[in-house]
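Retro notes - structure team

What went well: the batch runner handled both jobs without manual restarts.
What didn't: labels got mixed up in the shared folder, which is why I'm recording both outputs here explicitly, each with its sequence directly above its tokens.

Job 1
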Amino acid sequence: MINRYIRAIAGTFILISLILAIYVNINWLWFTAFVGANLLQSSITKWCLMEKILKKLGVKDEKENCCS
């Protein structure tokens, strides 16, 4: 469940920053690069800040669900 939220948030951030780069300012592409770098970093280190934030907000991890 938490991985689906992370993917949805990352995808939304990328699409929004691309739209902002087209219609507002090309420098919004730096935000796209930042999101991509964070995705790459989390795949290497297995640490994700968004995961920590979502857990504090009460989103359950699939491994913590007793009924799965």
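Job 2
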Amino acid sequence: MKQDMTVGNPAKIIFKFSIPILLGNLFQNFYSMVDSVIVGRLLGTNALAAVGITGPVNFLVMGFILGLTSGYAVITAQAFGSKDPEYLKRSIAMNIMLNTFSAVLFTVLSLSLSRLIFRLINTPDEIMDLTLDYINIIFAGISATLLYNTCSCILRAIGDSKTPLYFLIFSSVLNIVLDYVLIKYTGLGVKGAALATVFSQALSGVLCLFVIIVRYKELRVSRRHFRWNDAFAAQHLRIALPMGFQFSITAIGVIVLQGALNRFGPASIAGQAAGSKVEQLISVAAGSFGVVMANYVGQNYGAKRMDRVKSGVWAGTALTLTFSLIAMAIALIFPDQLTGLFMDAGAENNEAVLAASREYLHIAGIFFPALFVIFIYRNTLQAIGRTFWPLMAGVFELVARSVCAFTLPIWFGYTGICMAGPIAWFSAAIPLGIAYFVIIPKVKLSSQETLSAS
């Protein structure tokens, strides 16, 4: 099921490889959304707001982890493209060592700081306990999330985007069943939703690991591959750390915005939370094409095929813009129907929640093309080791979102909250596009730039 992306028509390869990733991300967002749907319908508006308010903080931690695992896998994709089996195995071993350390570090830090963080972002007292009940279980299960992300990134690096999808579908269905059972029949409340998510991710990760061991002999590592090498670790970290920081910088901006939003009360929080879940679901193709570009460009860069890198970027841009227009249409036409999935028809404040979500989706949807192209250029630059401008684009996004959070609500109220995201997207997309067209012509695949297993 692996795929060599250094040969064949770039557009066809990118589209074919993107389908399993798109479906996988849909299911991943789906079972995240199911948490909110079941919580909102069975436990009410406050519980929905409590789960929704964890989103930015959860993204701060999990986004950094995703950035790290994706960054380590860039080296793995380059090694696979270079057709050097020993280099490939050493990269996988380094993946395992670095991610094991990350799992311990982030679990300890996130559990220690969770209450402080939610106090700093003005979490309303009436939902503070519910918020901590949910997020502390999610943080305790960081190892489960990291296991699945690591295994799936390694599989995608060698061109297998189907296996992660199969196990993600299975775990998504399991999560839905456990969500309903644990919330409705055990009295665990939001804790039940968190436990269902962690268990489902853990099982998905274990199954992915089993397939790697059984199916792919070229990915099996032995004790000799686990020799620590500072230079080789640095090679992975030079790409992974900026990718992790880029995700976290984005998350910090969202947290700042969440702090401004929290002043508008539970109904607006719940409406924005529901709108954000809908946005993540209908714009899932953006991140999916980013994953495709990271692996496609990584393999071709490792194979010294910059001509294929350039043609692949054009194909990826055309595909992602097409999907952005579809997502825009859905956000503009069906906001109430999609938001209604999260709500009990008889709950109080329904109309206020619907109005807040509708406004958010209408404003965000118009600017989806800017959001979508970010992932093409950012992941392309990261896959060839040019991590500075993707990181700086994240800084621009953070500054724009933070400035908007402190200023726009003064003049426009809740509408200012909704405008902050699109302004931040443009602030990231413009420098990324400029950086790509300036950097790519200068890339020379000299012996100094070509990676090796030495």
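One thing worth noting from job 2: The chain has a mean pLDDT of 83.
We'll revisit the folder naming next retro.
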